[in-house]
Amino acid sequence: MAKVIVVTSGKGGVGKTTSTAALGAALAQRNEKTVVVDFDVGLRNLDLVMGAERRVVYDIVNVIQGDAKLPQALIRDKRLDTLFLLPASQTRDKDSLTAEGVERVMAELKKHFDWIICDSPAGIERGATLAMRHADIAVIVTNPEVSSVRDSDRIIGLLDAKTERAERGERVEKHLLLTRYDPARAERGDMLKVDDVLEILSIPLVGIVPESTDVLRASNIGAPVTLADSRSAPALAYHDAARRIAGETVPMTIPGEKRGLLGKLFGRRAA
Amino acid sequence: MSIFRFFSKQTSAPTARERLQVLLAHERASVGHSDLVAVLREEILAVIAKHVQVDGDKVSVKMDRGENVSTLEVDIEIPLNAMRAA
Lengths: 271, 86
What we know:
The complex is a heterodimer. By secondary structure, chain A is α/β, with parallel strands linked by helices. Chain A has helices at 16-28, 46-50, 60-64, 70-73, 99-112, 126-133, 146-159, 164-167, 183-188, 194-201, 213-221, 225-228, 233-245, 261-266; strands at 3-8, 34-38, 75-76, 83-86, 115-119, 137-142, 173-181, 205-210. The chains are: A alpha/beta, B alpha+beta. The A-B interface holds A 48, 51, 53-58, 68-69, 71-72, 90-91, 213, 216-217, 219-222, 229, 231-232, 260-261 and B 1-3, 5, 12-13, 15-16, 19, 22-23, 26-27, 30-31, 41, 56-57, 59-66.
């Protein structure tokens, strides 16, 4: 049974695309057929983060408008053959994404995939509402920072009102993914702590991704961070989050402890 | 940072720079419809559609936009009975 996940936040720059790619690769590594779908028409970037930018032929708008069939637009990942990308259009305007068109594409994707991960654009306009429309599960990407938490709260409200599930009287399963977390700064009292954010938003936590240079490095080389260096701190956090989304019970760890020889010698100082 | 990476001194920024240069060169070209690979793709498909009833499911188009060389791969299944009377 296919599950549709929306990765959303309201605010831009908090790590939606990074998280979409990382979770997509982590789920695909479980041998479950996964597609990541870019809904940011006009400003696509998921192709670049996935390292597939040179291979884009057709996009979701081509499929909606009938210029291409869905299998023609899907790009298979070169590293994982269970991972696919459906790119957004770079040249069309946002109105070319229609509700009926998206519904058709989603219905067809559900026949072929275990996981459909929709990368929402920032904001609360058409692209964002269409990305969340068919979601069973929402991953709300939030930074421990006031404007991000406020925008996440707004998005949670929309998930309870503007999705198919909400309209049927059902609930979208909501998960908080805290990204760019710096345990040292939180400990010093200069950054909102995990519990602060959880208390304010009151949705369950699915993962804590530490602020890390590994994320930038992965996007530089065009690989999801879970594939670029699967033992890095953010990769481990995303792998755990993916397992929780898939229904496993995984103990929550606050990242930040140095791994490797030095970390082992000095123990868990940061946490 | 892994010990392997520490010794190999392999940095990622040059890769980012090169990827962006290639991508943006192609994107800027496509705004003025002078993206040769895309133009060729459309014209090749149009020519084929003129002679053969093309089923969208039987056409696979692959592109790889490189720095000096791009490749365009059009793979079409043409069944005998799809031939139109010329």
